[in-house]
Design brief:
The protein is an all-alpha fold. It has a domain of 58 residues. It has 5 helices and no strands. The longest helix is centred in the C-terminal third of the chain and has 13 residues.
Amino acid sequence: MAPPGCASTRGGGDPPRTPPPSPPPQAAPQHPNRRSQAKKYDRAIAILAKHAWWDKLILVARDLDKFDTKNLAVCAQHFRKVRACRCARGCA
């Protein structure tokens, strides 16, 4: 017989505790910039151009309405500055 306070060798003790499962990871946003999700395209365009994230700026430009000529022109202007002519033709 085991001494008091010790678990017996015959399985009489409590099973080991496992930590509770962690919550599932949150899904990453599908759009490159949360500002563009909030329809603040002018701020999103400025931030993306400032950091030279051209691939993300292309996605924002594609997401713009064709009647939003102001923001489309700003995108095209940024692409022209870096000589990304293929992208600028798609925006203007």
